[in-house]
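Q: I have four molecules that I believe assemble together. Could you output structure tokens for the complex as a whole instead of separate predictions?
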Amino acid sequence: MTFTEIVWTKEVKLKDAILLEGLPGVGNVGKLAAMHLIDELKAKKCMEIYSSHFPPQVLIDDDGIVNLVNNELYFYKNKEGRDLLFLVGEYQGMDSSGQYDLCQKLIEIVKDIGVTTIYTLGGYGLGKLVPEPRVLGAATSKEIVKLFKKANVEFIDGEPGAGIVGASGLLLGLGKLQGIHGGCLMGETSGYMVDPKSASIVLKSLQKLLGVKIDIKELEERAKQVDSITNQLKDIDTNESIDKPDVNYIG
Amino acid sequence: MTFTEIVWTKEVKLKDAILLEGLPGVGNVGKLAAMHLIDELKAKKCMEIYSSHFPPQVLIDDDGIVNLVNNELYFYKNKEGRDLLFLVGEYQGMDSSGQYDLCQKLIEIVKDIGVTTIYTLGGYGLGKLVPEPRVLGAATSKEIVKLFKKANVEFIDGEPGAGIVGASGLLLGLGKLQGIHGGCLMGETSGYMVDPKSASIVLKSLQKLLGVKIDIKELEERAKQVDSITNQLKDIDTNESIDKPDVNYIG
Amino acid sequence: MTFTEIVWTKEVKLKDAILLEGLPGVGNVGKLAAMHLIDELKAKKCMEIYSSHFPPQVLIDDDGIVNLVNNELYFYKNKEGRDLLFLVGEYQGMDSSGQYDLCQKLIEIVKDIGVTTIYTLGGYGLGKLVPEPRVLGAATSKEIVKLFKKANVEFIDGEPGAGIVGASGLLLGLGKLQGIHGGCLMGETSGYMVDPKSASIVLKSLQKLLGVKIDIKELEERAKQVDSITNQLKDIDTNESIDKPDVNYIG
Amino acid sequence: MTFTEIVWTKEVKLKDAILLEGLPGVGNVGKLAAMHLIDELKAKKCMEIYSSHFPPQVLIDDDGIVNLVNNELYFYKNKEGRDLLFLVGEYQGMDSSGQYDLCQKLIEIVKDIGVTTIYTLGGYGLGKLVPEPRVLGAATSKEIVKLFKKANVEFIDGEPGAGIVGASGLLLGLGKLQGIHGGCLMGETSGYMVDPKSASIVLKSLQKLLGVKIDIKELEERAKQVDSITNQLKDIDTNESIDKPDVNYIG
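A: Yes, here they are, computed for all four components at once.
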């Protein structure tokens, strides 16, 4: 009854590669970071994954052409370090068993392509503005915890308390069961809006981990714009409080 | 655990046929248009499709006879142009994986009957009254985009922004994966009520595309009735606003 | 992933039997009618049906013994007319695809036992008190419509407008697809409470249809009790309106 | 589409063993009792069970290591009585069919390990504070009812009225279908908070049933703390009522 269909757009084999998952999530931090890396490294698409676990929906591009919602893999053959494979898309699997099913299949697929480590990228929602976001980590082995710590990733007891939900968690948990180790990088974020600042600090840690050098100016520029809008909103909010007389004192 | 059962009511083979999907949706625009074409062309039923993806429900006709809810295919052998096959029914599949499953099966079925192109018909809800609705389009290939433009179908950047959800989208998206191209015709509509006016403009574009000539007077008549009722409601609404003094000016 | 398990408590074969479905539903009319027939005819249990489509729940009897929720079949070898098989239980399948799956399996099972006709029993909720409930009908063939009419079952155009939802509808709709005909008897009821009066009029029609003679005094007695409670509640309601001064006029 | 994966952490065979289920539930009574027994008896883990019926989630331990949510089996070879196997975990199966599927699989697994009896542990929520909670019982056979009564387990007609929902019920109901008998011990609890007092009385009955002697002081200590907090909250509540003048007497 369920179906998952793979379309290779370019046959590719990688060696001892790292999978970087950047599907939509809190603050779209992981997605922004992964998409930025893909752009900067000029990674190429190698696979489209269609599945009945995604919404029954087509998207329409600027030419009026419809495309069924999917997940996509992009690859980057890295001369300075380990090869990279990116998992991005508009959606995660919609329900719990769909997420398990998709992540199981994705792990099989990326193993075949040559992935031996999984890094998942996400946001850690704090429910309030975060002026100086940190990158929090979690991993499937002590070795990766050590590795992450060297890249300014912080490990805080009992954080995140609810664990990690969705693809960023499942790919690690199911990967571990299949002998593929990995870790999650979570940029702190309010969770209220798309957060390029959080994505840019995740990228700073990632650069150290992956041995790639990329330009993150554009993300930082967008982060400034978001900050500026947020500040304007705060100003309006403050002014309104001042202007608005306290009704209880009237009459 | 799921079941889909096909009942041929008339064995039929078509040649290079176009599937026209008109299942219930926004403003029932697609359904109205498809049913009108079936009536005018005197298309004949060839198949009933029963499925556990529909609600667990029977409908009762005027003679007290119960019928399990289903989808149905009607065919029309067209001497002036390409053969037509119609997909209509009271329901779409109820959940997401059910929609994928049904649409996959339907594409297999209509391919076997001889369908090589899929046109899906639907409404595009604007959330407000639309005095002069347009027909918007989306398609799986540039050739069909061109074809549609010649038939007064408009393509507007980023519309519909959310893509196309349900059978009208999935049949195109899944069809494309299986090498069957097609497009969607969406009549603009308020989305608040069944909209024969929107259906009639979709039919005007369809006549050009299909090379059939049909009478749409009856639909236009119903459109006028709906307009007249809408105007009466607006009048009542306006009068009420006049009678009702503006509370802000009192006291 | 789903499971359905059958436990024969008594191997039985019937000849040209009628299935009477009385699962829980609106006003529990069908269940009351079926259980009363089972009691009066001293029908014997022959099968328990367990399924993952029922709630994950055990019930506890007066001796503290737990029993997994199930559906059950009872049989009655009728010397005066056609053999009877009863389908009763505490639950219907919980979701739509579960209902399809269970009803498909039940039809297979009862066919094997010897069922050739299906009568489903239910309530038709009117949303208001019904002093003189009627029995409404629907059927899969014109022959059964005629048969029902002779037994004081009424057929009213477009009633019930929403068709019949759940096992009472599905058993007929799916049965029809498999060549087993049948009909539904619906006792009018408020839908607000368990309704023995509605069940007793359904039984009156059933007696004529089945050629059995049973005592329905006990049900009529319970119907009177419910009526009496309803009237007391109405009185209280009326008195309160009288006694309660209109607050707007005080002070 | 669904998956369940078993990881043996220690191969083990038991003889005529009792399964003790202590998954999360009302007041976490069963979980507290089972975890306390595991700690006191120094039972060892022998199996981890992963399944798509659990949430798509990893938990993070104090070292920053992620672990996919699961259920676990612990065993205890009992020289004084029957061997014990414990079923514990952070979650039960998430939906109804998932619970059936998991419990079916679990019964197969524990049968293979050597389980011949199932005791499930839970809380019975009363919706109010319970100063002197009792242990209520239900069982699959009269023999076990008798056995439980000797261990101060009470059987009250029609309690619990709604039966037992979830793993504590299903393991008994499905076990009975497969010829494994058992019973459920339910500690009365408010249902508002984690309840160590209710867990400790369940343990008192269990000690008699299992022929093990364990220290429950720590649980009783925690029960006192909860009682003390509850009393403080009641005091605050009472004082507030005293301070707050009765509005009805004013004016």
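A: One point stands out. The two ends of chain B are 68 Å apart (CA to CA).
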